[in-house]
Design a protein that fits this description.
316 residues; alpha/beta; eight-stranded mixed β-sheet; 44% helix; globular
Length: 316
Amino acid sequence: MKIRHVVVAGGGVLGSQIAFQAAYCGFDVTIWLRSESSITRTQPKLDQLREVYIDTIHKMAVPEGQTPAIWARGIADYETFDEASCLDKVEKAYGGLKLELDLSKAVADADLIIESMAEDAEQKIAFYQKLAPLLPEKTIIVTNSSTLLPSKFAKYTGRPEKYLSLHFANSIWKNNTAEIMAQPKTDSSYFDQVTAFAEEMRMIPLPVCKEKSGYLLNSMLVPLLFSGMDLYVNGISDPESIDKAWVLGTGAPKGPFQILDTVGLTTAYNIVKMYVKIPSFLAPYNFKGMEKMLKKYIDEGKLGASSGEGFYKYNK
């Protein structure tokens, strides 16, 4: 089966990016959202992505932009880059994206559904149970979960042989990787189809040969974020100083709190909650302190860069 009709379930930071990138690459894309309020949160993200792609393409068109630090591999290759063509693809993507509240209507002709909802196991299970009876036989389902294993949800999809993980990195147009992880009941032919789809989305597919919470990227990234937050909640230092220690000491572009603002504090909160019940003598970090700290920020509306403020303030 040739994947053409793609549904992204969830319009958060990554969900909106996945949808925009797929549309940019010529796929017919629908974003399913749960409520009218979800639309009011998602549409500004799509508006901003349009501007980001346009700005990036303009930068790529000048000599100083043709460097690895600026070049966006998800947008074009060096050898075939054409500014006008890329800008046209942005406008077609932006104009062609559909937002839909009716799940049955959204998935009626779906070749692929990319679940990109909050890192909350109960919410994901409820979604799959609602989704399963609505799907065409042909539909493949993938989860963009960053920490939860697909085997935890496979039976709820009604088609475990067509279910696996496809995890994208943030700033998808530039950090164009796609981690592809099967669960024990995934048929290898669907793994291959999802791999081909990732390549068509201008992603570099990274196979994960065994189920692993965190996959490749987050298995390395999450401990960094935990370490940064642990230093903060235990009163060791402040977010800005912790970030500077990492950035100036390693040459990395962002520190843990800058990364948290990019990812979104709600996502971080949902991940931390999974660790709170670990016995204290087994937990290397102060997860209860992290949970309390993140909840305070979220309750104050400081959700990260997407809301204009998290650990830092941003111009929206």
